[in-house]
């Protein structure tokens, strides 16, 4: 049986990831500080802290991968018509609504994937917080276990 104090600590560890909307890298700082200060007090708090931190690291890794995949498409599209010796800048720049670029589809698809991932991330954090509040263990899906 887990007491209410430990349930609250585990819940706040998960909810502290929302501090990123106020503090840069708050989604790492908040959980790490709460987990490090309380990991020895309860195995329940330790497990939830590791899960929250592992999930945030995994999400960062997935975002870096998506960003790395998408950047070359933008670079090649931008530099495709530039002449290295005779630079004309944006003189030849135009938008054709009748014939969309493949960049539109690729960038739009990756952008939609990022938005869906963000919404799923928020929902999983709320679900983990509710599980911690109820005294249940929670394992985030698609999480790489950096801390074991």
From TrEMBL:
Keywords: Membrane, Transmembrane, Transmembrane helix. The chain crosses the membrane at residues 12-36, 57-79, 103-126. It is a multi-pass membrane protein. It is found in: Membrane. The keyword Transmembrane applies. Coiled coil: none annotated. Pfam families: MamF_MmsF. Its main location: membrane. This is DUF4870 domain-containing protein.
